[in-house]
Every structure is written in structure tokens, then in C-alpha cells.
Specification:
This protein is of the alpha+beta class and 193 residues long. The protein contains 8 helices and 4 strands. α2 (27-43) links the parallel β1 (16-22) and β2.
């Protein structure tokens, strides 16, 4: 390998890590999701912007979706997880409590399976049957989602969306912020550092 092969790795390593925690059922996360492409375009050169899921106690369907997202990642990689999360945000109204009142976990899993199928995530290796059978298995889906949730709690994330930049929870942010508001906040943070 030549030096040029290491440049993409060096670029990622030189970026400041920015983790945004989302709950798949949170309407405020959906608002932030709408702003994410513009934020990545504006700040992606300086920040490694990652999405990580967590589940708030009052969003009973979010953890099932989070487990499904982690199953997608374990079977097909990071891009599949992000594609699933994106499809969930596009279809959030389908698994809200008002759409699925008093739903059994199997009914909620069926909605997430349909979303994965419609997002073209399933194929001959990641079949509908595999997804349905493994979405609630401990090692395949639930344990990674539980670990992800514990990481959020370790940062002090008790609501969503929340942002951890360079290992620190950023307080006083709004889901409605676009690039201008975030630029102002990032400028404030750099002065404090």
C-alpha cells in the first residue's frame, strides 16, 4: 500500500467525532433527520457525524426498531443499518403508538419487517424469514441494542435527539436547528475549549 491509501483513514482519524443519539419513535429526531443532509454537507469535513440509537422509556416500539437496525448492521454492515434507520424515519407514523395502540411485540416487529422489505434491505442472504426470526434474538439484535442504549446513558443522554461532540454531551440544542444555528453553537463550543 502506498501513502495515498492511508489518506482516507487519516482524514477520518483527524475529524472530531460527533454522535447524534436518536430514538426511532421520537418526532423531534425526525425533525433533526430532515436537517441531517445539510449538516453533513456543511460540517462533514471537520466532523465525523454518526447516528447512534437509543430508546426512551415512553416510546415502547423504539427498542424493537433499534434491535432491527442492529440486526441489519450485523448481517449487512453499517450502510444497511443507516438505510434501515432512514427508512424508519421516512415511515415513522406507521409504528407510532397512535398507529399501533396496544400492539403486541410481534405486530410491531411485522411493521419493521415491512419497512426493511420496502427499503430493499432484504435479499437472498438477508431474507424475510431471517429478519423475522432474529429481530428479537439476544445475540443477534437485542444485546447490541442494549449495549448501544447503555452507551447513550453513559454520556448522560436521557432525551433525543442529543449530541455528543468530542466525547462531551452538548447541552441546550434544538431539533429544529439548521446549519446556521449549529454553526453558532460550534463557534461557542470552540471558544470554551
Amino acid at each position: 500500500l502506498g501513502f495515498d491509501s492511508y489518506i482516507p483513514i487519516m482524514n477520518v482519524l483527524s475529524k472530531t467525532k460527533w454522535i447524534t443519539f436518536w430514538d426511532l419513535q421520537c418526532p423531534y429526531c425526525r425533525i433533526h433527520w430532515n436537517h441531517l443532509p445539510a449538516l453533513r454537507e456543511r460540517f462533514g469535513d471537520k466532523y465525523q457525524m454518526d447516528i447512534q440509537l437509543t430508546s426512551l422509556a415512553f416510546h415502547p416500539h423504539a427498542f424493537i426498531g433499534q434491535a432491527a437496525a442492529n440486526l441489519s448492521q450485523r448481517k449487512k454492515g453499517d450502510e444497511a443499518k443507516l438505510a434501515f434507520i432512514n427508512a424508519c424515519m421516512e415511515n415513522q407514523e406507521r409504528y407510532l403508538v397512535k398507529s399501533l395502540p396496544d400492539a403486541r411485540p410481534s405486530e410491531v416487529r411485522a411493521v419493521f419487517l415491512a419497512i426493511a422489505k420496502e427499503a430493499n434491505l432484504l435479499d437472498k442472504d438477508f431474507t424475510e424469514e431471517f429478519f423475522a426470526e432474529n429481530m428479537n434474538k439476544w445475540e443477534e439484535a437485542v444485546k447490541p441494542a442494549n449495549t448501544e442504549h447503555k452507551e447513550a446513558l453513559a454520556y448522560g443522554v436521557f432525551g433525543t435527539p442529543k449530541h455528543v461532540i468530542d466525547g462531551k454531551l452538548v447541552l441546550d440544542t434544538e431539533s429544529s436547528w439548521g446549519v446556521d444555528e449549529w454553526q453558532q453553537k460550534l463557534d461557542e463550543l470552540s471558544k470554551e475549549a
